[in-house]
Structure formats: structure tokens, C-alpha cells
Amino acid sequence: MYAFDIERPATIADAIAALGTEEAQALGGGQTLIPTLKQRLASPAKLVCLSAIKEMQGICTADDGALCIGGGTTHAAVAAGAGAYPALAALAAHIGDPAVRNRGTIGGSLANNDPSACYPAAVLGSGATVITSNRSIAADDYFQGMFTTALEDGEIITEVRFPVPEKASYQKFEQPASRFALVGVFVAKYAGSVRVAVTGASEEGVFRWAEAEAALSGNFAPEALEGLSLSGDGMISDLHGSGAYRAHLVGVMARRAVAAAH
Amino acid sequence: MPEVKMTVNGKPASGQIEGRTLLVEFLRETLGLTGTHVGCDTSQCGACVVHVDGKAVKSCTMFAAEAEGAEIKTIEGMAEPDGTLHPIQQAFQDHHGLQCGFCTPGMVMSASALLAENPTPTEAEVRDYLEGNLCRCTGYHNIVKAILAASGQDVSRIAAE
After folding, report:
1. What's the CA gap between B128 and B140, in Å, rounded?
2. Which residues of B touch A40 (CB under 8 A)?
3. C-beta separation of A201 from A116 below 8 A
4. Residue A73 carries which DSSP code?
5. Most buried among A103, B40, B136, B137, by the most CB within 10 A?
6. With contacts defined as CB-CB under 8 Å, which chain A residues touch B57?
7. A193-246 tens-digit pLDDT
8. Could you read off the pLDDT of B61-92 as tens digits, one per residue?
9. B131–A98 CB contact, under 8 Å
10. B interface toward A at CB cutoff 8 Å?
């Protein structure tokens, strides 16, 4: 790693002030950023650790029933504490391994927006709202392509608000070595609408599968997806699987998610 | 150079660090606690697992500065002061849960975190929890057996591998 200064503010206000200087970078749980720094793929002058900011941690329920999760909440804390939204708790419980889940945070995962990460599928599939240090961003506006989001320099995710669906499930086909999602599909049924979000597959990052949403809105059953397919064009193609294989897996995992939704 | 203070194995510990100093480097190089191993240095292998405020963490993927004020427990803190092994360590010895021993500190610390959370895990739960701990001597069968034995479960019917 190249050398950098490190600061550990205790409040959101102090973190924003610390991030105001040139080449400052926020550090969530560090489970992606620290390996990136070791490979010298990033070279910030200053890291601002968010892990000591208590006001960004924890889970609560809003007056409208939405589940509110602080941006600095670890995957392990979500797995243990998001019982009001079981599909989300289950997703968090299967990210990485236990030691990674004890450090990695929901805000860090969303800020990074890895094309194979799990949380983006939950946020887009739930139509959640990403709340930052200065605004609220709808999930449909937040994700802007692989490793690209609506976040601006110095802006941090303080909270994510999930409307709780009637039924939901996240199913991922794990890449057997890394255990990242080769393809993951999040399906959520709300009163009057269904959302289907896909991670791991597209070169554009997480996306909604509109045809599947329309089919499931009429009939929320795996059979409703029979005959629907996605093109392999624009899908990630690498040594783990071709674009056509990933496109096929999206259908398989979507049907499994509908079947497993509860 | 900033100073960091924490509690390691029940004793106060402090030292000068750089921003980029990893927790595992502070433990091994500043404090001389070389029981915590660095295997892959890429947060895959789990040889560096320690407890931070009671939770299993890969100490190669956390900065020392982030441990300010924390309670750290390493493999050196597991046995009694008189050398009596911790029950998990004893079970690893009794059930041949190690061959070369390189992964063992991380295995023991992960096992200890698992049993604190889930005192009588099933075999599947043990294997699932060890997802982030790699053993290249292929010792998993006896590691799992040792952890089940340390949890007080009867492992006499699990065949030796």
C-alpha cells in the first residue's frame, strides 16, 4: 500500500468535513477497499473511517413500516437484526464469510456497486431509498452502471430505507471459488406490483428485468416466467461463464426465487 | 506518526502506527504476537482471524487505527496462564485437527466465535462457518470433528478420515 493518513470521526458531520479535502476517500468496512489498496489500485491521500460513527449504525422501523438500516451497519448485524424483512436478512447472512460479514457494511457495498455484489439486487429489487449525507436517492436513480453510482465526491450513505414486501426471496448461483454471485436474482412482491432485480449478470451492473416483473404481476408463480428469456448480449462473459450461460441462469434463479418467496 | 491504544488479551497495548498499518502487522510486528498468521494477505484464507470486541475478524483486512479502544483477543489469549489449553485447542490436539498448523490459529479463533454464537452447532453449521478459513493440508474433516467435540457433542461415531 502507498502511505496515507487515516482519520476516524465519530459523527457524520465530522466525516463530511474530513472528506472535504482533496484525495480523501471514505472507508466503510474495508472488505473491498483494503484489498484494493494493497494492490495499489487506489491511492488516496487520506482515508476517513466510518466505523466509529454510531449514528450510522443500527436497524429500526419507520412510521410507514419501512425498514431503516444505517449505512455503517455490518452484514452480520443485518443478518441478525432485519427479521422484519426475512429475505433481506437471509441475503446478508450469505455475503462472503462470517469474518467478512463482521466488518463489511451495507453502505460500503452500495457505494462500491460491484457488478456481482448482493446488496444492489436487494436495494433495486425492493425499490429502496438510499439516504446520503445530503439527499435521498431512489434505487432506480442510484445505480448507474458497473462500479458507478449517483454518489458525488464526499457524499456518504447514512441510511437505506426498504419498503417491506408481502413476499420476497434472493437466490444466487455462487461462483464456486470466490462465492460471489455468478448470477443473483432478487424478487419482491408488493401490493399491486412485483420487482425483479438481477446482479452478477450484466456488464451494466444490477438491473431490473421488466418482462419478468410484468409476467409476475399478473401471476406470482414460477410458471409465469416460462418462455421468458434474456439475450446474452451485454452479459458478462468470462472464464466462469459465457454471456449466454449467465442469461440462462437469470431465468433459472428468478424461477427459484419466486418458488422460494415467502 | 499517530499512536493507537487497545486491549490485547486483557492487557493494555499501545504503539506508533502509520495510517496503512494493518491490525495483523501491529499484533505481529509491534506487539510480537506472532501466533496470528498471515497466509494470503487478501482476506481469503482466515489464518489471521482474531476477535475484535468478541467478533471474528480478518486482521489482515482491518487497519490498526480502526482498533482504537477495542478489545482484541488473539490465539495467545486462548490458553490459561499456566499453559492449560483452551478446550477448543485441546480438541484440535485430541482429534488431529491440524497437520502443518499454519491455519490453526485462525481455525481456533473462528471456532471460538462460532461456539460463542451457537454453542451446539450441527456439522453443516460448522462447515458453513469455516467458509472463510482455508486448510491446505485438507484437514477439514478432523477440524470439524474437533470443533463438534469441543462443543460437548459425541463425535465417536464420526469416522476418522
Report:
1. 12
2. none
3. no
4. -
5. A103
6. 99, 102-103
7. 999 999 999 999 999 999 999 999 999 999 999 999 999 999 999 999 999 999
8. 999 999 999 999 999 999 999 999 999 999 99
9. yes
10. 2, 18-20, 22, 41-43, 46, 49, 52, 55-58, 61-63, 65-66, 68, 110, 113-114, 129, 131-133
